[in-house]
Amino acid sequence: MNHYDRKRVLVTGGAGFLGSHLCERLLQEENDVICLDNFLPEPRTTSSISWGINILS
Asked: What tens digit of pLDDT does each residue of 23-55 get?
């Protein structure tokens, strides 16, 4: 896949159960993924998708 075929995707709620699985799938398809989450109402973990992700605080 060349650079022009890649998509840049914003996933809101990406630290939750559904969002994290969506991010993982999009990364497997070699897309550029931006995950946005406010971690409310409870803290979430993203241990299953620790590669390719930068957490900004």
From this structure: 999 999 999 999 998 877 655 555 545 555 665
Give yes or no for a contact between 17 and 49, defined as CB atoms under 8 angstroms apart.
no
Say whether pTM exceeds 0.85: no
Amino acid code (one letter) for 9: V
How many alpha carbons lie under 13 Å from residue 57 in its C-beta half-sphere?
1
19-23: long-range pairs with CB below 8 Å, 24+: 20/44, 20/46, 20/48, 20/49, 23/49, 23/53
Look-up of token digits 């998509």: 7
The answer to whether residues 1 and 30 touch, using CB atoms and an 8 Å cutoff, is: yes
